[in-house]
Amino acid sequence: MPEQETRKRRAxxxxxxxxxxxxxxxxxVEKRPISTSLGAFFVFARGFVGLFWLAGFYLxxxxxxxxxxxxxxxxxxxxxxxxxxxxxxxIVSMSIATLVxxxxxxxxxxxxxxxxxxxxxxxxxxxxxxxxxxxDTTLLTLALDILVLLAxxxxxxxxxARLPRAQRQ
Length: 169
Prior knowledge:
By secondary structure, the protein is mainly alpha-helical. It has one domain. It has helices at 15-19, 34-68, 72-102, 105-129, 139-152, 155-162. Helix 2 runs antiparallel to helix 3 (72-102). It is elongated. The two termini are 31 Å apart.
């Protein structure tokens, strides 16, 4: 009977075991796993779609400002604040996606924390405030966040991101 190459993980592992580099416990993945590629693609797509959302927001702003009763200077200031922060968030998201694709473990962890926070925010909004999850509001971003979380938290993605750069292809 051939020796098993990977060991099965227990249901609960000590935190120090999860945080240390486990070089001998499994076969190191030297080629970029599909989960890392898909996770990076979804993060990049989310940032890119954010730029389109900002363009739509810019076009719809006169109607929104009129409904809210914002005057000229305040309306202009509010618009540019939203566009500046939204544009910065989109650029940061696409940069993190590029770093994740190239194998940065810290970028993978930052993205995992970010999507976890986004999922929790959506859940709290739904359960506590009665916000609806629809296709028009948060369903697409929530689905992408869950896909990114599943892809980037896989064992292969973790192993590949923790490999020294010289061993990655």
